[in-house]
Amino acid sequence: MTDLFGNPDPTDAATPAIRGGSLTGADHAGLPLAVRLRPQTLDEIVGQQHLLAPGSPLRRLADGQPMSVFLWGPPGVGKTTIAAVVSRATNRRFVELSAVTAGVREVRAELETAKRELARGRATVLFVDEVHRFSKAQQDVLLPAVENRLVTLIAATTENPSFSVISPLLSRSLLLTLKPLTDADIGVLLDRALTDDRGLRTPDGDPYRLAPEARATLVRLAGGDARRALTYVEEAAASASAQGGTEITPEVVAQAVDKAALRYDRDGDQHYDVVSAFIKSIRGSDVQAGLHYLARMLEAGEDPRFIARRLVILASEDIGLAAPSVLQTCVAAAQAVQLIGLPEAQINLAHAVVACATAPKSNAVVVAIGAALADVRAGKGGPVPAHLRDAHYPGAAKLGHGEGYRYAHDFPHGVAAQQYLPDDLADAVYYRPTDHGNEAQIAERLRAIDDLLGRRRPS
After folding, report:
1. Distance between CA atoms of 226 and 191, rounded to whole angstroms?
2. In 255-293, which positions are buried (b, 16+ CB within 10 angstroms) versus exposed (e)?
3. Bridge partners (DSSP) listed for residue 8
4. CA–CA dist 1, 11 (Å, integer)
5. Is the pTM of this model over 0.90?
6. What is the DSSP letter of 65?
7. Quick check: bond before 180 cis, omega within 30?
8. Rounded distance between C-alpha atoms, residue 449 and residue 416, angstroms
9. Beta carbons of 80 and 74 less than 8 angstroms apart
10. Which of 79, 148, 74 is nearest to 118 (CA)?
11. Contacts of 199 by beta carbon, 8 Å cutoff, 6+ apart
12. 364 close to 439: Cβ distance less than 8 angstroms
């Protein structure tokens, strides 16, 4: 028999010996590396040090203090692992449900079992993965169990619980935010995979050697996901073994992982080449190419926040007022990346890419602010015209400030003809709208405004 993690049940007489809750020697050979190396104690957890300090909620939870928590963070940072460690620390019964497949019936059944077990003296840790996928009705079922401490609820989510979990349930629980694993954290896991007695060994029992370049590649491809890192290094070791070797090289990794993203170097020339192609493709209105380079960056483990920032910049730099709503779309996508994280946020980024690529283009705003800055840096721009100066402080009137100012709302169309620019820039023209998209309407309105202002139209 096995438990929810694929580990043999220690009460089963047919199971092999277990040491410290994990299999030893060859007993674990048939289990995935990510399962074999799953931490058995809080001290073995890599990353999340902000949650593991003495006296922290996780420490108290592992010590048996009854409470319910929500673990919010991106995939592969240890949410399931934390739940298992907590249950193991106090020998509590552990039950795992996935909100993707479980319904109200399954939830009620597990709660009834937990009630019976509690009457026998054994508490239950109920781990609900992807809890944000539970409907309001399903979440309501959990509420009495949490309120009466029938179970210790540990709920994991990649989405902000403030938006996806009902308030009564959230208010009765602690919200713990898990951070993405750093490259250094992933490196620790890779080293552990090669040195731990639960880790990788050749058929002859010898350790594998991981070339520095291969290690850097695996760290990059993991993208902060521990499970992905261990899966990749396990596949690479199997590939090296199949070729009769014990060294995991970049070539072995490429063959094992079979990812085109290996051609993308996040810290080298390829990084800049792919990002450049991404922006230029969208600027050129090629939505297919834009989506290709987006996918290429995502698969390579590029920080989605970097991609979102580039799209926000592009929305003003290359689209501007030709389609002003696109900037709102990109800002919303950037916020969604922060709230949701990968993998779901890839849809938000794709939404923004399609909006940007298919929108009419204009760089008129970029040209306008560039020209205005150039004049200022060249020393142009005399005194502010007297009628525009602040006239609210005592003595301003004696200086002629505000004298002759024409209040725009007192004039037809809300436009008052008077000089606004300094004398040496009175005829300056910075913003020249195109005839693309919304800017065609702006251009028409600007011509009407110039007529009302008595301003010479730019040629």
Report:
1. 12
2. bbbebebbebbbeeebbeebbeebbebbbeeebebbbbb
3. 2
4. 9
5. no
6. -
7. no
8. 10
9. no
10. 148
11. 33, 36, 37, 192, 193
12. yes
φ/ψ bin of 64: left (φ > 0), alpha (ψ from -120 to 50), beta (otherwise): left
Structural domains of the chain sorted by starting position, each given as residue range(s) with its CATH number in brackets: 48-177 (3.40.50.300), 183-261 (1.10.8.60), 269-358 (1.20.272.10), 373-453 (1.10.3710.10)
**Helix/strand/coil for 128:** strand
Provide φ and ψ at 20, rounded to 5°. Answer: 65, 25
In 369-457, DSSP assigns E strands to none
Strands (E) in 33-74, as ranges, are: 69-72
Asked whether the beta carbons of 294 and 349 are under 8 A apart, the reply is yes
| Distance separating alpha carbons of residues 209 and 218, to the nearest angstrom | 14
Residue from 361, 356, 358 nearest 435 by CA: 361
Q: What is the pLDDT of residue 259?
A: 46
Tokens representing residue 96 in the block = 């795992």
Residues 6+ positions from 236 with CB-CB distance below 8 Å: 214, 218, 248, 252, 253, 256, 257
Provide the pairing of β-strand 247-248 with 22-23.
unpaired
- Tell me how far apart the alpha carbons of residues 455 and 457 are, in angstroms, rounded to a whole number: 6
CA distance 290 to 315: 14
Length of the chain: 459
- Residues 6+ away with beta carbon under 8 Å from 117: 93, 123, 124
Output the six-digit token pair for 100. 């993707």
Q: Report yes or no: 214 and 252 within 8 Å, Cβ to Cβ.
A: yes
- Whole-number pLDDT of residue 30: 67
Whether the Cβ atoms of residue 443 and residue 434 lie closer than 8 Å to each other: yes
Cβ atoms 213, 108 nearer than 8 A: no
- What average pLDDT values come out for the chain (459 residues) when binned by 10 residues? 36 31 46 83 82 82 80 81 78 81 85 89 85 84 87 84 84 85 89 87 83 87 82 86 85 70 48 83 90 86 86 93 92 90 88 93 89 85 78 71 79 78 81 82 81 70
